[in-house]
Amino acid sequence: MAVRFGPAAQNSRLVVAAESPALNGELVKTDGPNLILRVTKTGAAPAEMTVPTDEKTQFHFIGALVDGKPQAPHEGKLQDLKPGMRLKVMPETGTAEKIMVSPALESLRPK
Q: What pTM does this model have?
C-alpha cells in the first residue's frame, strides 16, 4: 500500500490518500465463479483476463448517481454484477478477496 500526505487545495487541512495494488478493468461477463475483465495497461492494447472468485470474495458497490437515481453504497454478490461495470480487484493476482464495483459509464451519463 502506498500512502501520500499533502495539503488540500486551498485550505489548510492535511489530505491523506492510500492506494492498494489492484487490477482495474471493465466487466465483460461472468463465467460461473469467474469474472472476465477487459483490462487496459499503460502502453498496451486492451486484453481480457479471467479473475477467479470464491465464497469469501467481498463485493462493495460504491455510491453513485445511476440513471439519474441515487444509489447508496452497499454490499453485493456476484449475481449483482452486470457487463460494463468497472471493477477494482484486490489482490492483483490469484483469487479475488475484495472487489470495488462502480456503475457502467453509460449509466452515469445524464439522459
A: 0.76
Can you tell me which residue has the cell 502506498? 2
Grade residue 40 by pLDDT with cuts at 50, 70 and 90.
confident
Measured between alpha carbons, how far is 100 from 87 in angstroms, rounded to an integer?
Answer: 6
Give the integer Cα–Cα distance in Å for 92 and 11. 35
**Residue 34 near residue 51, CB atoms below 8 Å:** yes
The Cα 101–Cα 1 span in angstroms is: 20
- C-beta atoms surrounding 62 within 10 Å: 14
Cell of 2: 502506498
